[in-house]
Amino acid sequence: MTVSRDTLRAALNRLPRVKLADLPTPLHDCPRFSEAVGGKVRVLIKRDDMTGVAFGGNKTRKFDFALADAKAQGATAVITGAASQSNHARQAAAAAARLGMKCVLVNRHDHRSQMGIQGNQLLDYILGADVHLVESGDQNGVKERAAEELRKQGEVPYIIAGRATALGAAAYVGCALEVLDQMDAIEERPDFLCVASGHGTHAGLALAIKALGLKTRVQGYSPGRGDEGRRKEGVAAVGNEAAEILQLDVRLKAEELENTDAYVGENYGIVTQAGLDAIHLLARTEGILLDPVYTSKAVSGVIDRIRKGEIPAGSTVVYVHTGGTPALFAYAPELIAHGDYRQKIVKG
Questions:
Q1: In CATH, what is the architecture of 59-161?
Q2: Is 337 left (phi over 0), alpha (psi -120 to 50) or beta?
Q3: Fold of the domain built from segment(s) 5-56+164-339
């Protein structure tokens, strides 16, 4: 059963939210980039790297809903975490600061954190987060212990997981509506919506497109390796939980989704040559920066599919830029080596 855009907007408007993200984010036409990748496909970029707080990114849009849920439960502190250079963690710290909440980050003590405090991790500290780096073992267990310690201090902790993930997917139903409205304004329609795919962002976009009955293909580009079937099942599960929250009859099926790990390279968090090429190409044609872990690999996939004709000539592609650019600074050695950057010292 398909619904209208107004019905989707009404469903979103029924959900509690706090205002963190600067919305709608811009949709930028990228003619020089489009020409550089063959000139036969029009590429536009949805700038969700410009959502606002602390360099922005897709999580800020999601926290409009997830942290409203936290507030509704009386929470005074948020707990989350991932890799040491996590964009999610950085945006959580910024959102908590904006809302006057404490933030505990339980991140991994991985290779990047062993290189010192830089990139997203530097911002975590600047934003006032209580950062824990887990050397080994169960991060979730550390989060639970942190929650118990906060309770002893009289705080009400909210661990960002579960329902918060589904609320984040619901937020990306809203992003899809923004894209469609912006495309209407330029009398275009998207043939492809492409995005770096963890779970929620991809799920929300796919849910919106299916609910509206559109033919737009939503392509997810995974940042890590893993079984394709399980990835798709994960995206579908999050999307369907979001559909329940939004009281929509539509449901996603794993077999309908597109999600590839073909552009991951060696593994999550390890740069690829194609990804580094994509960073330089988009920066030097449009002045838009990608990150080394998520968006650069996804855009390298979009470039490859355009050049191979898998995204056909005459198509219009909207790439949803999910942010992450502070991580560039933590990957400076790889970028410098790839670009062969050299300082030119001259006498004045």
A1: 3-Layer(aba) Sandwich (3.40)
A2: alpha
A3: Rossmann fold (3.40.50)
Give the integer Cα–Cα distance in Å for 242 and 176. 14
Question: What integer pLDDT is reported at residue 47 of this predicted model?
Answer: 98
pTM of full prediction above 0.90 = yes
What count of residues does the chain have?
Answer: 348
Amino acid at 199: H
What is the domain partition of the chain in residue ranges?
A: 5-56+164-339, 59-161
SS3 340: coil
Distance CA 89, CA 262 (A): 26
Backbone angles phi, psi at 316, to 5 degrees: -115, 125
Q: Is the pLDDT of residue 90 over 90?
A: yes
Q: Tens digit of pLDDT for each residue in 331-344? A: 999 999 999 999 99
Radius of gyration of the chain (CA): 20
- Which positions are catalytic? 86
pLDDT tens, 103-155? Answer: 999 999 999 999 999 999 999 999 999 999 999 878 999 999 999 999 999 99
186: buried, middle or exposed (CB in 10 Å: 19+, 13-18, 0-12)? exposed
Using CA atoms, how far apart are residues 81 and 63, in angstroms rounded to an integer?
14
Domains 5-56+164-339 and 59-161 equal at CATH topology level = yes
As given in the structure block, the two tokens for residue 45 are 């970029």
272 phi, psi to nearest 5 deg:
-115, 155
